[in-house]
Amino acid sequence: LELVLGLAFFLFGMHVMSSNLEKMAGGKLEHMLKKMTSNPFISLLLGAAITIAVQSSSAVTVMLVGLVNSGIMQFGQTIGVIFGANIGTTLTAWILSLSGLGSDNLVLQMMKPENFSPIIALIGILMLMGAKSDKKKSIGTIFVGFAILMYGMDFMKNAVEALADLPQFADQQKTHAAQHKHRAVGSAAPH
To answer: What is the DSSP string of 50-116?
Structure first.
């Protein structure tokens, strides 16, 4: 049940973020994205940074698909961002591993998703409630959507962690890994 709830939160957060990005997508956002993705190196850094922020290269890819579908970006502009997202996945794993650090350092503690997501949600709610302009309300909604997405990912992570303790799941993983090993050896063998 927690996995389904996490998936629902994740998808809803993604929808909220995407729809509000579309709403904000005047000529300025389109121009800014075109400028940022025109340089492959900057495009790569952008993909890595966004992936670190949302902690999912899949989420970044889904957002990029939404931006291409809405006409804000062209497919060619997304290639560098996708490569950067894949690099960002490695950095995301590092950030998520910070959850295991037992440091009292405030900066390290604030890098943990469970600590910065509520702050982002609070900022988003304050912007939604206090902002007069639609643009600031949309930014607030994007922040809230991001926090919901992060909580969804956390719910799914917690739900899947319980599977690791089940012997049936461990056996299935070993069988699956052995099948991949045999395929790799078979495809590498000379014909």
So the answer is: HHHHHT-HHHHHHHHHHHHHTTSS-HHHHHHHHHHHHHHHHHHHHHHHGGG-----HHHHHTSHHHH
pLDDT digits (tens, 9 = 90+) for 45-69: 988 888 777 667 777 887 787 778 7
> What pLDDT digit, counting tens, does each position of 85-95 carry?
889 888 767 76
> Would you state the pLDDT for residue 33?
78
C-alpha–C-alpha distance, residues 25 and 71, integer Å: 10
Q: Using CA atoms, how far apart are residues 114 and 95, in angstroms rounded to an integer? A: 12
C-alpha pair distances (Å), 71 with each of 31, 57, 79, 152: 12, 21, 16, 28
Residues present in the chain in total: 191
Q: Which two tokens stand for residue 139?
A: 């930014």
Instruction: Give the mean pLDDT of 166-174.
Output: 74
Quote the CA–CA distance of 13 and 17 in Å, as a whole number.
6
Query: What pLDDT, on the 0 to 100 scale, is given for residue 111?
Result: 64
